[in-house]
Design brief:
Helix content: 55-70%
Structural class: alpha+beta
Distance between the termini: 53 Å
Strand order of the largest sheet: 8-9-11-10-14-15-13-12
Strand content: 5-15%
Number of helices: 41
Length: 922
């Protein structure tokens, strides 16, 4: 077959063939090169630039056409495939007719070139691999070896990523029997050129000798492969998915087609409708999902200018722009794009379930192992049946005669522990219209829904399936906008709806007593008893207001006021649920953004909460909310902050506001220090307790007081004493410094810590009456864990050098203070607030902005330059966003009451932030 005989698919391509590649001109140029070449090496050198120019011109033309029709993935992938076919066949033509011609070939001197894998299927992204099978009738001959070698050198010189194998038909049968990956590649082989009879013989023998009779074996292998891939890639709703390999991605669709092709011998997915595997609607869903996912993959390749299937944050923004998504309704275009992505991924999951059910019915897929082991039938309620170990509907007409059965199905699934049969799911999705206003206001429906949350111990299973099938949005229409809604930030690992379901899953785990060691306070609250109806409903609705311009807590509270009665809550319960949704961030913000060692913080929080019942409910909601953000978000640091805030607030609520005063704390701290240092004589103890001002005693735990007492003992004015210790209970390393006080000390310490890659999560500094500074920083590594013991000596060394002036942080930090490429896609506006009410003696400055390694140093250096005294800093990080809170006084020891001073200071801080971001982007 010559280049001019390339199979034409004019209707399939995104633009006419002649606009992609001028076949006649290319053939003419290659013939001219061949006429002037003295040998094969000369011809290769002359042919490669000609082919390169043709290929690159074709790629540019396809990319330009795709840019104007960014959703037309199928014609684009076919065009890239046709262009690749043309180049491969040109190489074959040169190798067989010009480089290594045979005037009288023998029976063994034949070769067929086949495309395999995705290339064989006729689908290619711009930088997909070119997988080739060189097929020979017998053991490879010197002529065939020369042809293959010349072809490969040409293709490699064209910078194509070629996967290749040289085999006989017998080799293919033997290796395909041993390896399912090879068998899958052979399943999709497509003859390109060379000996057509040899390729036809391979197809015939594969079908007769390898594929027939091994359908079940192949199906099980592909499904096991899929499960392994999902485990590796993570959940469908992870916010940086792999378009090809991720759950609900292209590989899942391809796996369905491989199995269908293997069993039913189909060539196109449309043939599955006639076979009864898919309905017409399901085929439409398949084609739309496949087209969307291929479009995304092609755009990813074009943006990266290489093969790339990971939809990282920075890529999401560019792909969304290329596909025409724009900002609207308070949401970024990228968020709308990703919502579409996740809805297609969910649809792929639905199709997989339907397909596998049909396979089970035909006995091509074995029953799930657990169901084979537990073969006893569950005692089902009337109207249900068990089919292939799944919960099925016995009589569809009878089932649909009572719309409430649409909820009862999920309750029966939870009660029996059975998975719902996909045909039952399909019946539900086809009759969602039965869930109307009367249905939603029916007290029986409300009870059924609450029972799903409260009665069976694993509500997340029912909620996730109800959400995927559209039942949740039909019953609670206010839920529909957040279904598959992505939150475009690095903090949230899941879509909003999946986050809510994860939160409810965590609450159910606490109730099942699975997290007693990890969450002792939450577990004890639930054991003592709490209004579970209010808690589950508040957790279900806490983020329902997201995705709109308005504050989602305020909007969510309004929605809760409307929805909670519809879910069966009584008026007083509605009030509590509304309050919880309105203030669901209050406890988290107070614990992570304020100094909870300050009695004023706790008293203000207690005034907002008002009752022990609300405090208990809010703690549980907060814990589940943080844990539901994603793996690794919850840690001992957050746990310790929330426990401390809960215990102190509970004490205030039970014993009155005066239970927590600065004076009482100071007296308790001094007494605790005396008890912790029994080997110290009374005179030394008296000197230690007298040398510090009141805030020192109120702001630190006795363990830190003991460390500082020992560091300061006999410390000279020219010495620096350092104590580094891992605080496992808080998931952080505690760094204590004692040295002669001087201006800017907080900033220099922050700079030293940044230079060794330490993330500060909390910090306090005090000045003693005899002129020493006592500073304590709690630091973590980049993964949110304590610094390893092995890294502490370098940390100590860097701090010593910085404090002695041997290292200047401002200069040294420049090389570390960089924004990674994937972080640049985020918009993080800067907000700076001054609060003179939250503390009795300090002004609280809260800086909410983009996080980066040198930020804390820049802020503290700016404050120091403005003669601002920093008493403490609390740092809360949320992915790419950080909130740095400083408790400060001016140079006279006063709060910042004057507006002009606040405005001037804010301007300096904003300048420092802007300059730092600019530097980090360079």
């Amino acid at each position: 077959m010559t280049l001019l005989d390339t199979p034409a698919r004019p209707d399939d391509l995104i633009l006419p063939q002649e606009q992609i590649l001028d076949a006649e001109a290319l053939a003419h140029d290659l013939a001219a090169a061949a006429a002037h070449a003295e040998n094969a090496a000369d011809l290769r050198r002359a042919a490669v630039p000609i082919l390169t120019e043709a290929m690159q011109g074709g790629r540019r033309a396809i990319a330009a056409a795709f840019a104007t029709r960014p959703f037309d993935a199928r014609p684009a992938t076919r065009a890239w495939c046709w262009l690749t076919d043309s180049v491969v066949l040109a190489a074959l033509d040169l190798a067989t007719k010009t480089m290594h011609p045979l005037s009288n070939p023998t029976e063994s001197e034949r070769v067929a070139v086949c495309a395999v894998g995705g290339y064989g299927r006729g689908e290619m992204a711009p930088f997909s691999d070119v997988d080739l099978l060189f097929l020979t009738p017998y053991k490879i001959t010197p002529w065939a070896e020369s042809v293959i070698e010349s072809m490969l050198y040409i293709l490699w010189d064209l910078r194509l990523k070629v996967g290749h194998a040289s085999r006989t038909v017998r080799d293919c049968l033997r290796l395909g029997a041993q390896d399912f990956t090879i068998r899958t590649a052979l399943l999709e082989n497509r003859f390109l050129g060379g000996d057509a009879e040899l390729a036809a013989r391979l197809d015939s023998r594969l079908r007769d000798e390898l594929f027939t009779g091994t359908e079940r074996e192949f199906t099980e292998a592909k499904l096991a492969e899929r499960d392994s891939r999902h485990e590796k890639q993570g959940e469908r709703y992870m916010v940086e998915p792999n378009v090809k390999e991720g759950k609900g991605g292209l590989r899942d669709l391809q796996s369905l087609f491989w199995i269908a092709k293997y069993i039913h011998h189909v060539r196109e997915v449309g043939e599955l409708v006639a076979l009864g595997t898919f309905t017409g609607d399901e085929l439409g869903t398949f084609i739309r999902a496949e087209n969307f996912l291929w479009a995304v993959r092609c755009h990813l390749h074009l943006i990266a200018n290489r093969a790339n299937d990971q939809l990282t944050f920075d890529m999401q923004v560019e792909v969304a722009e290329r596909m025409g998504y724009t900002d609207r309704g308070g949401r970024r275009g990228v968020e709308i794009f990703m919502q579409d992505y996740f809805r297609h991924a969910t649809a792929v999951g639905d199709l997989t379930r339907i397909f596998l059910t049909k396979l089970e019915a035909a006995q091509q897929k074995a029953e799930p192992l657990l169901q084979r082991l537990l073969k006893r039938r569950k005692k089902l309620r009337r109207g249900y049946a068990q089919v292939n170990g799944r919960l099925a509907i016995a009589d569809e007409v009878n089932f649909l005669s009572d719309p409430l059965n649409l909820l009862r199905l999920f309750e029966e699934g939870l009660r029996t522990g059975l998975l719902i049969h996909p045909e039952a799911m399909l019946l539900v999705t086809n009759h969602l219209g039965l869930i109307d206003e009367d249905f939603r206001n029916d007290a029986r429906a409300q009870k059924l829904f609450l029972d799903l949350l409260l009665k069976h111990g694993n509500p997340e299973r029912a909620l996730r399936r109800m959400n995927e099938l559209g039942v949740l949005s039909a019953f609670i229409p206010e839920f529909e906008p957040i279904r598959a809604m992505m939150q475009f930030n690095m903090y949230h690992h899941y879509t909003v709806d999946e986050h809510i379901i994860q939160c409810i899953s965590h609450l159910a785990r606490i109730e099942r007593r699975e997290l007693i060691e990890e969450l002792p306070v939450s577990s004890s609250i639930l054991k003592e008893g709490i209004n579970r109806r209010v808690l589950y409903v508040a957790l279900l609705l806490h983020d329902i207001g997201k995705g709109r311009p308005e504050d989602h807590s305020i909007l969510g509270a309004r929605i809760t006021r409307k929805v909670a009665p519809r879910l069966g809550l009584k008026p007083r319960e509605v009030d509590t649920a509304e309050w919880l949704v309105r203030h669901h961030l209050l406890m988290s913000d107070t614990a992570q953004k304020r100094d909870i060692a300050d009695p004023r913080t706790v008293r203000d929080f207690a005034k907002a909460v008002q009752s022990r019942e609300r405090l208990d409910l809010l703690l549980l909601l907060t814990v589940c909310d943080i844990r539901g953000v994603g793996p690794g978000t919850w840690n001992n640091w957050k746990a310790s902050l929330l426990r401390a805030l809960y215990r102190q607030t509970r004490r205030v609520l039970e014993d009155g506001m005066e239970a927590l005063t600065r004076e009482q704390r100071g007296a308790d701290a001094k007494r605790n220090l005396r008890e912790a240092l029994p080997d110290w004589d009374a005179r030394d103890l008296k000197a230690e307790t007298a040398r510090h001002y009141a805030p020192y005693w109120q702001g630190l735990h006795v363990t830190a007081h003991v460390v500082f007492a020992r560091l300061l003992r006999d410390l000279h004015a020219d010495e620096i004493a350092i104590d580094l210790a891992i605080d496992a209970d808080r998931d952080a390393t505690r760094a204590c410094f004692a040295l002669a006080d001087h201006p800017g000390i907080f900033s220099r310490l922050a700079g030293a810590l940044a230079l060794v890659g330490a993330n500060v999560v909390d910090a306090r500094t005090y000045t003693s009456k005899d002129g020493f500074a006592t500073a304590v920083f709690w630091i973590q590594d980049a993964d949110g864990h304590p610094f390893e013991e092995s890294r502490l000596p370098r940390l100590r060394q860097m701090i010593q050098k910085t404090l002695k002036g041997e290292v200047v942080p401002r200069d040294a930090i420049k090389s570390r203070d960089k924004l990674r490429k994937r972080e640049r896609a985020f918009r993080v506006p800067t907000h700076i607030t001054f609060d003179n009410e939250g503390s009795e003696i300090y002004t609280i400055i809260e800086v909410d902005t983009r996080d980066r390694p040198g930020l804390l140093y820049d802020l503290t250096r700016t404050l120091a330059a403005a003669n601002v005294y920093i008493a403490s800093a609390v740092i809360a990080t949320y992915g790419e966003q950080v909130v740095d809170t400083f408790y400060v006084k001016d140079m006279f020891g006063l709060k910042f009451h004057t507006e002009s001073k606040r405005v001037a200071l804010e301007k300096k801080l904003r300048t420092a932030i802007d300059e730092g971001v600019e530097r980090a982007r360079e």
